[in-house]
Amino acid sequence: MLDWTRRQGLVPLVFAFLALVAPGAFAEQPAGTVAPAAAAGDGPVVFAAASMKTALDAVAATWKTQNGKSVPISYASSAVLAKQIEQGAPADIFISADLVWMDYLDKAKLLKPGTRLNLLGNTLVLIEPADGTSTLKIAPNFDLAGAVGDGKIAVCTIASCPGGIYAKAAFEKLGIWSAVEPKLAQADNIRNALTLVARGEAKFGVVYGTDAKAEPKVKVVDTFPESSHGPIVYPAAIIAGSKNPDATAFLAYMRSQAATKIFLDQGFAILDK
After folding, report:
1. What is the pLDDT of residues 62-81, one digit of tens each?
2. Tens of pLDDT along 165-200?
3. pLDDT for 32 beyond 60
4. Would 92 disulfide with which of 22, 124, 210, 242, CB 3.0-4.6 Å?
């Protein structure tokens, strides 16, 4: 399968730290940009699913205007971030794009008890470049493989990235998995899959509705039925080893009226618990 991953460099300080605690751990597993450890007086270090970047950057900016503290944020696939946290990366808060990787850390007792909550919901969409002309409608056995022809369908890693896992589940439910599997271009996180479509390097892509809204160079062809994949839930929690006094406050701030407006404007659903 073609590896179309766009690799970004790790911040040297954190990379050196992770290499020390887990030598060779990232030799074959690309990660997103990792935030440096917070300086004295900074807000909590947040490790968040790549699909949150547009909205969470805005939330962090409003937080800073209110209290003067920056919030260092690392964006990557939830799987990559969970593994980094497991290996000792200096995160205070983790926000996953699915329940699986939060459960993974929970079972390892790496979450601060009583802090976990389901923060946001999302949708799964089929996209194409903004100048595309597809009239595909998502339905059982729809001919996505035929529509893509010799092109590619951009997804994030189907084995571990939540967006890729949701995509595979939808393809299987709709009865087209065997036809589309050879045409997948897998990126290390969902924003990199989005970029492949935005650049015209993939004819179609499967991303979250919020990703499509954040990128003017793509458009939504159709939305996958909720029944075709598991619920898209973004849980958040404080990491057990966090010592940043603002971690609890920032987690609560993401439920504030100001943050809620940002998340809603970006297309996320707000979950009650």
Report:
1. 999 998 999 999 999 999 99
2. 999 999 999 999 999 999 999 999 999 999 999 999
3. no
4. 242
